[in-house]
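Bit of a strange request maybe. I'm writing a small parser for structure token strings and I need a real example to test against, not something I typed by hand. Could someone generate the tokens for this chain?
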Amino acid sequence: MRDSRLTEISGMVVTETGFVVVNDSADEEPRRRIFFLDAGCKVVRTVRYPSRPRDTEDLAMGADGTLWVADIGDNDRSRETVALWKLPPGGDRPVLHRMTYPDGPHDAEALLMAGDGRPIIVTKQGGTAGLYAATGDLKPGATVPLEQVGQVSLPRTTTSNPFSFLGRAVVTGAATAPDRRRVVLRTYADAFEFDVVDGDVVAALTGGTPRVVPLPDEPQGESITYSRDGRFLLTVSETADQPPGTKPTVLRYPVPAVAQAASSSAARHTPTPSAAARGASATEGRVRALIGAVGAVGLVLVVAGLLGMARSRRTGKR
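Reply from user aminoacidic:
Good idea to test on real output. This should exercise your parser:
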């Protein structure tokens, strides 16, 4: 992607003709758009928001082609409401729908669509991520309460990434397969694909065993989507903090065969590490041991604080 406005890509979906992407909370006004790209990653259309978004972190597309922009980022955990922007197919004016958590603010970067069309927010926190959905129909001009509908714990991996074990602990993006029978969550290091039965995404995430796809050493991987045929996972990283001239590049990973789900539990929960992961330093091991000694509460605080700083140096993201 060569457009200079696309340096903080946090969400991506595939369309019949290319891609749609959004930046996260860009300080520069020209970057606060919904960008439509052709198959060669050239921007062919943009859509403005009618008011300024706070922190757009993911995209999801409904079965009818409706685009949902997840304005759910909250690094400081200070927002009274979060929001979804709804854009119908061919539309040029997104509509804002506000929501509020039942248990205080959360940072989140991932959005999925349930089989009944209800959006599901996946929070960004160490250990167990929360799943939240609206208690009623979303309405423009109204604030709808969210409810926690489940929690998801991802298997541990050893995949190499810029944020070490912290990068393997938090969910940074999500996507639904074209056939609506699979969903995927990603961290900075890996993708985790779940099978969905009868559109029940919550049951899949809370009770299923995922297939693991390593995404090693992506600069700052926050976006993920499926290819049109569902055979590949496509990702793209933020590049704002990379060396000058670095362009965001779409990467493609084969989706593991569904038959792999029948492999042994040990194999599913202990994916084979990449060469880079096998070379992980002993220092990281000692740090992980120390964090384990601190305990679960300490780990959550460390993840929340350090990832909030590591993911961006921009003033608006602090």
